[in-house]
Amino acid sequence: MCGIVGLFLKDRSLEPKLGALLSDMLITMTDRGPDSAGIAIYGAPTSGRAKITVQSAAAASDFARLEGALAEAGLRASVSVKSTHAVIEVEAGKVDETRAALARLRPGIRVMGSGDCVEIYKETGLPKDVVARFDVRSMGGTHGIGHTRMATESAVTTLGAHPFSTGADQCLVHNGSLSNHNNLRRELVREGMTFETQNDSEVAAAYLTAEMAKGKDLGQALTSALDDLDGFFTFVVGTKSGFGVVRDPIACKPAVMAETDRYVAFGSEYRALANLPGIEDARVWEPEPATVYFWDHEKAA
Amino acid sequence: MPVIDLAVTPLRDLNSALHAIPPGANDINYEVLNPRGSHAVAVGIDAPVTVDVKGSVGYYCAGMNDGGTVTVHGSAGPGVAENMMSGTVVIEGDASQYAGATGRGGLLVIKGNAASRCGISMKGIDIVVHGSIGHMSAFMGQSGHLVVLGDAGDALGDSLYEARLFVRGSVKSLGADCIEKEMRQEHLTLLAGLLEKAGVTQVKPEEFKRYGSARRLYNFNIDNADAY
Lengths: 301, 228
Prior knowledge:
The structure holds 2 protein chains of 2 kinds.
Chain A: E1 3-9, H1 18-28, E2 36-42, E3 49-56, H2 59-63, H3 66-72, E4 78-82, E5 85-91, H4 95-105, E6 109-115, E7 118-124, H5 127-133, E8 143-149, E9 164-167, E10 170-178, H6 181-190, H7 200-213, H8 218-228, E11 231-238, E12 242-247, E13 256-259, E14 263-267, E15 283-285, E16 293-296, H9 297-300
Antiparallel strand pairs in A: 1-8, 1-14, 2-7, 2-8, 3-5, 3-6, 4-5, 9-10, 10-11, 11-12, 12-16, 13-14, 13-15
Helix pairs in contact in A: 6-7, 7-8
Chain B: E1 3-5, H1 11-19, E2 29-33, E3 50-54, E4 66-72, E5 86-91, E6 107-110, E7 123-129, E8 143-148, E9 164-167, E10 178-181, H2 185-197, E11 209-213
Parallel strand pairs in B: 1-2, 2-3, 3-4, 4-5, 5-6, 6-7, 7-8, 8-9
Antiparallel strand pairs in B: 9-11, 10-11
């Protein structure tokens, strides 16, 4: 099964509540998948700074004196630790250098995602525990996506949890299973993409990253995914300013959307949307099969 | 009139109450508040009760209904009125996929649109959709009637047996072995009755086209004996 949720805010006054709203949406979907849970939140960018969200199974030792170690490597970074995760802020343009230094200095650290805005938190366990562990409720932002997993295609691990992020400020959650992911992974590796897992959803994320790197916008990348990905999927995707949804042509994986003047919301089921403000008067609909939906803060302006 | 508020009463209490109604009971008009997308609301009814659900429901609402009248004043998730035996289910809003699946009898009225696989494997149920329906609807439909005032999606009536389909709008494509058929007087009379039962006014049976099985797929053909 799996449960997926997404929330894209139009009304800026809701931004401080993004983490709380998304947390409640995800917790409502707990019985669609108890294996792992994750949330990606797009917050306000800080000019000239980039963020890297990292995770470690040995957080205490890996995160201890990490700022100092990075400084010795010539990288001015600030590290804020949240349980098994940490957000490392560095100068914009130093992300790749920092990732290389992390791999050298702290090989146990795994990168969950990076970019100007996104922070990604994911762990094995139930949504309520994952949300509490990372204090997601207190986070504000412009948009976010979340996932609770019933594993089918790969191991129940932190790295196998969603969202998957394969490019700067890009991430994806998936309900379904892909049947051509091994082939597609080989092709993407040939194009220079790297993979952390054997998971099918990571391939979908990397595919979209690769297509956007070729110049497509999110909507165009999702449209080509309909031709190139084989299997069952409902995807919810975030980019720095955008939010997209697409379902495969068979469309057996459930999906409900709601839109008001204040937000666009996605849930695997209506239950996930039932607590949103003004849901009584929202336009609520089931996204059509093989149809791309996307919204963009920059394009809407 | 019993009022059950699902914000404070567990769903199982509602369904148990609906299952425990003795024959001849009078106080059988239930109102259900705050369903908020709950699954399995009012499933397994086997008495002539009425249930008015004030809001939207999740999976399998009114499943296996046998004689009840369930009205959802909102939209319904997947599998509404699945395997209905008899009675009436009315959805004031939209219905998600496989509405009325495998239904053996009774009437399902959807006042909005229905998604994919509406009436899949229907076996005697009558379904009237005021709006449009999605792809693969009435797949392997065996008997009963599917009436659509709007449009139908891809592969309508694929691998159809003897269910009868009436569509007023366009059909995106017909499934394997489903063909348009002549609308004769007996069908117009039948359709008029179905529209009346479903409370549809100002729409004439003559506005519909009839679709059914070409009967080439499910009948054994002696010419194919060599293939076995």
